[in-house]
Amino acid sequence: MNIDRNYEIARELYAQYGIDTDAVLEKMKEIPVSIHCWQIDDLTGLEDFEGKLTGGIAATGNAGGKPKSVEEYFQQLKEALSLIPGKKKVAAHAIYHTAGKGLDRDQIEPKHFARWVEFAKEMDLGLDFNPTYFSHPKSEDGFTLSSNDEGIRRFWVEHGKRCRRIGEYFGKELGQTCYTNHWIPDGYKDITVDKLGPRKLLEKSLDEIFGEAIDPRYNVDSVESKLFGLGSESYVTGSHEFYTNYVAHKKNCIICMDAGHFHPTEVISSKLSSYLTFNQEIMLHVSRPVRWDSDHVTILDDETKAIMEEIARCDAFDQVHIGLDFFDASINRIAATAIGGRSTKKAILLALLQPTQELIAAEREGNFTKRLALLEEVKGLPFGLVWAKYCQMCGCRQDDWIRDYNN
Ligand code: RNT
Ligand code: ZN
């Protein structure tokens, strides 16, 4: 395939709509996608290779090749990252420290994550972080930061505090902000009488966790809401309304929205502008819910495209932080990570390759015919040729990598 010749054709065709493909490719260089570390091993973590995933989330499937050692894990992650073109971060999770089984969550320190900094420097990546408030005996009764058991609540508060310091360490070492995302599984399976009590406890715990001042140049925290989980179908303490209010009132953290954490017809793409109105930063977990919060591999589907279009139209790529969150154990895990990362990058590219200013102008003039006609016509432009050029520019493989994976 003659990538350069094809790109010339694409450039000419896009130019007819006033779209400067060279400028778009430049812009692509600045937009990172945060690749989650947990598709590679079904969220088992490096603490215990036999560890069980709990907290109302599940990776289904039994594809072979799951890493059995720290070395193998990093090798596989490296391979997956090499298949995703352009600027990247990696989102680590607290159970991915290299100190082994004995170290409890209220004991973790930056030094236990030195391997991640080394890896990030070697691979020219940024790092994000996530406390692990699940897969632990102290989360077994379904509550962590909103637990009525003061010992349990304090244990998880300590975990949250330590995770922020690890985020700060990542930020300092790599010279770019680490986004530390807090998601807790807390909730009730059945009809809940006191919905206020756990939320008051969660507010108190978050105030304690975020009480320590940390320079936002190094670490910014996000809080991730959820509608329901397996075993918490009736009530989730950390709902979307809870966190939206927490963020707006306390201003000590930002919202994280996961594409799978809302009612089936509710989409996060339509929510972004309401946060951006108030200049709020947003963290995203771009995932693919199939009928429920199933965490299928992210693809170039309507909602992923809509999310990126919305960010492009709000010109907010520096305020909206794009992270991934999926775990599918039924296909090759390296390829799954690569597919999700590549599809997300494709969605960003596609969003940038739109005549956004012209569309906005048509809308303001009330020319809705033009708005719809233009939106439909640009769908036929040869986006794939620009994508191929982008992969080439980034020194990343085109599509021949597919042959390397036979499940
Ligand atoms: C769970 C949340 C959360 C987790 C990760 C592993 O429903 O989406 O983001 O998937 O922390
Ligand atoms: Zn998520």
Explained architecture:
The chain has 407 residues and is an alpha/beta fold. Helix content is 40%, strand content 11%. The protein is built from 13 helices and ten strands. It has helices at residues 3-15, 21-28, 70-82, 114-123, 150-174, 196-209, 240-250, 272-276, 302-313, 333-352, 356-364, 368-377, 383-393, and strands at 33-36, 88-93, 126-130, 178-182, 187-188, 219-224, 235-236, 254-258, 282-286, 320-324. Helix 4 links the parallel strand 2 (88-93) and strand 3 (126-130). The relative contact order is 0.15.
Topology:
Elements: H1 3-15, H2 21-28, E1 33-36, H3 70-82, E2 88-93, H4 114-123, E3 126-130, H5 150-174, E4 178-182, E5 187-188, H6 196-209, E6 219-224, E7 235-236, H7 240-250, E8 254-258, H8 272-276, E9 282-286, H9 302-313, E10 320-324, H10 333-352, H11 356-364, H12 368-377, H13 383-393
Parallel strand pairs: 1-2, 2-3, 4-6, 6-8, 8-9, 9-10
Antiparallel strand pairs: 5-7
This protein binds L-rhamnitol and zinc ion.
Nutshell version of this structure?
With 407 residues, the protein is an alpha/beta fold.
Name the helix and strand elements from N-terminus to C-terminus, one letter apiece. HHEHEHEHEEHEEHEHEHEHHHH
Largest sheet: 5 strands, parallel
Secondary structure class reads alpha/beta
Strand order of the largest sheet: 4-6-8-9-10
- The count of helical stretches stands at 13
Radius of gyration over all CA atoms, rounded: 21 Å
Estimate percent helicity: 25-40%
Low-confidence region ranges: none
How confident overall, as mean pLDDT?
97
- What molecules are bound to this protein? L-rhamnitol, zinc ion
User: How many strands appear in the DSSP assignment?
Assistant: 10
Distance between the termini: 27 Å
Give the overall shape: globular
Proportion of residues in extended strands: 5-15%
